[in-house]
Amino acid sequence: MGVITSLFARKMVAAAKAEVDERALLSSVGLDPDGPWDPKVMIDDAVYYDMLERMAEQTELTALPVRVGASMRCDEYGALGLAWKAAPTLMGSFARVERYARLWTSVVEYELRPTDRGTFFILHRSGVRRLGMRLSNEATLASAVSISREVCPVTFSPIEVHLQHPPPKTLEYHEAYFGCPVIFNSDLDALLISAEALARPNKLGDEGITQFLLAHLEAELGEIVADDTLERRSKNAIARALSAGLPQMTEIARSLGMSARSYHRRLSEHGLSFRTLTETTRRELAEGLLRDERYSLAEVAFLTGFSEQSSFTRAFKRWAGRTPALYRKGQSPV
C-alpha cells in the first residue's frame, strides 16, 4: 500500500463533476467534499484507483486525464511548485520533481534518462496496471506538460509521450493536448523532451528563491524519508524488477543507493532477509494480478519473475494452498 496526494483526487472529481456524483466520490476516499484542497493530505493509492474506476462506470473518461493534467498549476503543488517555477531552466524543474516527488506520493518515482534523441522523464509506478492506475499515469504526464508550459517562455511540447497500457478508443484528445505523437503499448510511461527545451531558461527562474525553497524541501523530505520503511522501499524495487527475472540483492541495493554489504546489514538490523522479502513481494504481486482478469496466467507468471508457468503454479500453490486458477475463481483450498 502507498499514498498519493488528495489534490489529484479532488482535481479528477472537479473535472468530471457535471457527470458524476461529486460528493459521494470524495466521501468514498475519506475527503470532506466541502473541505480545503490541501496537497499534504494523503489518501491510499488503491482507494484512489477504486474511485477512478467508479467514475468510469458513471461517465466516459477517455479525455478526463488530459483535462485534469491541463488544469494543474505550479502553485497547487505548494513549495515544490514554487521550486519548479524558480528553477533556472526546465531541466532544473524536472530534476526537482525527480528529487522531491516523495513529498506528494509514495507510489511513484521519477527518472531523468538521457538518450541521443533527448531526455526521457520516466514515471515508475509498481503494481497491477488496473484502469485506475492507467488513468492516473496519463494525468500525471499531462500535468507535467501543463506546468512546463506555465514556466516556458515559448510554446512547449514534448517530442513523444509514451504509455505502457493499450490505447483508448480515440487518440484525438491526447494528441491535441500533447502536440506530439502519443505511443501506447510502450515499454515506458514517459515524456521524451528535447535538449533545447530542457536548456531553455524559465520565465521566473530565481537563484535566491531557489536556494531558500530547496532548503525547505530538503527538510520536508528528510522527515518523510525517516518514516519510510526499508521493507516498503525494498518491496517496491523488487516488484519493478521482477518482469526482467528474479532480481539479485546487488541489483536492488544499487537501485536503493546502497552497496550490497550495507543493504544486507540494514536488512539484518530490521530483522529482514532479502530472500523472504522477494518471496513475499512475488506472492503479493501475483495475488493482485490474479484479481485482474485481463492478465493471463502466463502473463502473471512472467510479471512475477517466473520463466515458466508450471514453476509459477507450483510456487503459488505452496504460498496459497491452491492453484492460481482456483485462486482466481475464488475457490477454497482443497
Report on the structure:
This protein has 334 residues and is of the alpha+beta class. The protein has two domains: 156 residues, no CATH class; 100 residues, Homeodomain-like (Arc Repressor Mutant, subunit A). It contains 17 helices and seven strands. The strands form two sheets. A five-stranded mixed beta sheet has the order 3-4-7-5-6. A two-stranded antiparallel sheet has the order 1-2. It starts with a strand and ends in a 5-residue tail after the last helix. The mean pLDDT is 87.
Helix and strand topology:
Elements: E1 3-5, H1 6-15, H2 22-28, E2 42-44, H3 45-58, H4 64-71, H5 79-86, H6 90-100, E3 109-115, E4 118-124, H7 131-151, E5 160-162, H8 172-178, E6 182-183, E7 190-193, H9 195-199, H10 207-227, H11 230-241, H12 249-255, H13 260-269, H14 274-290, H15 297-303, H16 309-320, H17 324-329
Parallel strand pairs: 5-6
Antiparallel strand pairs: 1-2, 3-4, 4-7, 5-7
Helix pairs in contact: 1-4, 3-7, 4-7, 5-6, 5-10, 11-14, 12-13, 14-15, 15-16
> Assembly state here?
single chain
The order of strands across the largest sheet is 3-4-7-5-6
Residue windows where pLDDT falls under 50 for at least 5 positions? none
User: Helicity, in percent?
Assistant: 40-55%
Number of beta-strand segments: 7
Mean pLDDT: 87
Count of DSSP helices? 17
Query: What's the gyration radius in Å?
Result: 21 Å
Please report the distance between the alpha carbons of the first and last residues. 30 Å
User: How many domains make up the 3D coordinates?
Assistant: 2
Instruction: Quote the beta fraction.
Output: 5-15%
**What does the largest sheet look like?**
5 strands, mixed
Structural class: alpha+beta
Strand and helix order: EHHEHHHHEEHEHEEHHHHHHHHH
Shape: globular
